[in-house]
Model the fold of this input.
Amino acid sequence: MLRLEPIRKLLELAGDPDNPTAEELIELFGRIQTIAVIGLSRDPDKAARRVPAYLASRNYDVIPINPYADKILGKETYETISDVPGPVDLVVIFRPSAEAGQFVRESAKRPEQPAIWLQEGIWANLEIREVRAQRVTAVQNMCTYLVHQALDKGNRA
Done:
């Protein structure tokens, strides 16, 4: 039985009452395989590198989106989310709030309509409302690492 309390606490701290529920986040992580990361950093000391590396270590297929690098985490990078050739289940965005909205909109245009996740400290209220109105799962101001850790611990409880 998964313990939902740690995830509910993270949701409360995120401060967006329209973020998916703990149960919806469990379902999301249960079905995703391919995660495109916009702003995946070349710098191993940055969260924008450590979090995707952690997800890759948990057998997710992490696709780097960074126009300033050729390879990150041993994988070919793409300039934009639109350039990724195969299907994407989740788009994680590591860009400042002032830039995040454009990446939310671009991600929502993908034909498979991947879930969209803005990391902790990143907001794009208008654009997130727009994509949610299109029935796209969208999370903002939450850390995928912390949520996945809470899920992982819940599975072992």
About this structure: The chain has a mean pLDDT of 95.
